[in-house]
Structures are given as C-alpha cells and as structure tokens.
Write a structure and sequence with these properties.
mainly alpha; Four Helix Bundle (Hemerythrin (Met), subunit A); 5 strands
C-alpha cells in the first residue's frame, strides 16, 4: 500500500480485477453464445491493459469456465440442453456425496443452511440456491468436493437466472419451504429425495431454460 495526502491507498491489482470482473460477467450470463472473447475488447470495457486480461482468460480457462482453443483464442461455452442436464446431474452427485456421510448426525446438523433458506429464499432466490447448496457441501467436510462445487456453481449461474423465467415462482417458493423443513428436521433420507426431485424438475425443462438463457444474452448484446 502507499500513502497519498495522508490517506492509505491500496495498490491496484489489474490481474485480480480482470479475473473478478470476467467471472462476474460470465456468471451474469453475458457470455453464453459461444462467442470469442478478445483481450482488446474486454480490456477496453474494464479500463485495463490487455496483459492482465489475457492472464485472466488463461486462469478461467484452467478452471473450465471458458474454452481455450489452441491457435484460435478463448471462447465462451455455448451451453445446450444436453450440457445443462449433465451439469444438473453433476451437482446432484456432489450433493449426495456431501450429504450421505452425515446420516449418523443428530438434529440441528443443517441449522446454518436452514437459516440461509429462510433469510434468502424469499428475497434472493438466485443467491439462495448456490449459497445453500455450497453450505451443505461444506458440511460434508470434503475440501476437494467444496472446490469442485464452487467451479460448478460458476457454470450453473447463467442457467439459474434463466430458471426463474421458466419455472413458476409459486413452485420455487414451495421448493424452498420444503427444503427448510427437511433441514430443520434433519430428515436425511427425505433430503436426498428432495435433491433428486429438484434437479429432475430442471432436467425436464432444460431446453426451455437454455432458450431463455440465450434470449437474455442476445438482448444484452443488442
């Protein structure tokens, strides 16, 4: 850090800014059409030089959030319905792996997750989904699983936003109400059934969710 006029100023971190900004754009659904991501264009939008932007692209490609094609550059993933179903399957698998070892635990085990459901589900359902799921994964005490789920959450963020347009709000409210009750009651077996039903309902609507997601992205590019 440095001092300017007696005030402490933080040194700028262009690479960190680039990673954070591009990740936020990806999660918002700005890039879901398979478009090429150019350092020149992104650097202008972020008011950064191209070098940290290229480094950020490499970092996010390593995480699987964008696609690097040798000799061609970096591209956003073009998610189709089959891809989305596979992502839902993967998240259901992660949740089952995290929850299964907790069967011997007593009541109150998922109290923190239940609190999140109650505090976020009504006002911020999009934020609630991944925050609650990540909290459940954290309860499994498997660090590798936690990291894998965080990366998956980045891939699922754009479809999550589109889900709200496809699925009825009343149905979403009922889902969260049921989940909160299961967490409070530590209904382990029923919780696993809920996880499967939650993801199955989205698998069935995957084509509609993808269509809504692409429509959102195209509207943002107009």
């Amino acid at each position: 850090m440095s001092k300017v006029d007696g005030q402490v100023m933080r040194l700028r971190d262009p690479y960190g800014e680039a990673v954070s900004a591009i990740r936020t754009q990806m999660r918002s659904g700005a890039f879901v059409l398979g478009e090429q991501l150019t350092a020149a264009e992104v650097s202008r939008s972020l008011n950064l030089s191209q070098t940290p932007v290229r480094e950020a692209f490499a970092r996010l490609a390593g995480e699987g959030l964008i696609d690097e094609r040798r000799g061609a550059g970096f591209f956003a993933w073009r998610l189709d319905a089959v891809d989305l179903v596979e992502l839902y399957d993967l998240q259901a698998t992660y949740l089952r792996a995290a929850l299964a070892p907790q069967f011997p635990q007593g009541p109150g085990r998922w109290g923190a997750a239940a609190d999140l459901v109650e505090s976020l589900a009504r006002s911020e359902p999009l934020a609630a989904t991944e925050q609650v799921f990540q909290r459940l994964v954290q309860e499994g005490r498997n660090l590798a699983l936690q990291r894998a789920h965080l990366l998956l959450a980045d891939r699922l963020a754009p479809p999550r936003r589109a889900e709200a347009e496809v699925l009825a709000l009343a149905a979403l409210g009922e889902e969260w109400g049921e989940l909160g009750a299961l967490l409070r009651g530590c209904a382990c077996a029923d919780l696993l059934i809920w996880v499967e039903q939650y993801h199955q309902s989205r698998r069935h609507r995957a084509p509609e969710i993808v269509s809504a997601m692409r429509s959102r992205a195209k509207a943002g590019h107009l």
